[in-house]
Amino acid sequence: MNKFLSNKEVKFLSSLKQKKFRKQYNEFVIEGEKLIFESLNNNQIIKKIVYSKKIKNFDKLRKLSSEKNIPLHLCSEKDSQRISDTKNSQQIFALIKCNDIKELSDIKKHKNEPFIILDGISDPGNMGTILRTCSWFGCYNIIITKECVEIYNPKTVRSGMGAHFHITNIINDDNEKIIKFFKDNQYKIYSASLSGKPIENLKIKDKKWALILGNESKGISKYFEKNSQQIHIKGMGKMESLNVAEAASIVIHYLSKI
What does pTM read for this prediction? Predict the structure, then answer.
């Protein structure tokens, strides 16, 4: 018989909807069968799984949890609504340890792989969608500037659809150190910009490139603009610009072709 979740534990899980508590405890909650199986299959550090209703693949979940020594806890439907960040709870959750946020000085390997630099991305939905795109194209080194929305924001986690569990390195550092790292390691530094050169004119020779994606309204910061080669997706219709997540998909696809 699985242990019933205490009121104190329910209160704690509910508190992790707030950034300050996620940061304090270095943990976050995911919700739903798909995300939980994705986290299990990618060897995330799962502290516990909580459910108020058995999912379709519950036997498989119980077997995997047992193999990985992850406790299963029951809760009431009312408590699942308290824990959930959405209006209609999926009634199954996992408590997971956040991956360590690194600095560039910690990166000893992966110096011949692409990096994505997120410069002030403020919308959690855009952040999650970009992470999902990065995972699709095999870009597993993500740099987030200090102005970005928190990477473990619940909406970011939902829209990422499990991409968080694929990332090799999540890095946060100063803009000057970011540019120095890539110049020292002889990377091509590109930034997506409306005033850039057409992307189809680029000649990509290897995987040693870094792409900067800027804030939804302000674009990339002046320092990054000055220290990167600006590239542009040529439009064929009437729209002035693309959403940053849409632009990310097109540019990363192009850069990943080699």
Answer: 0.93
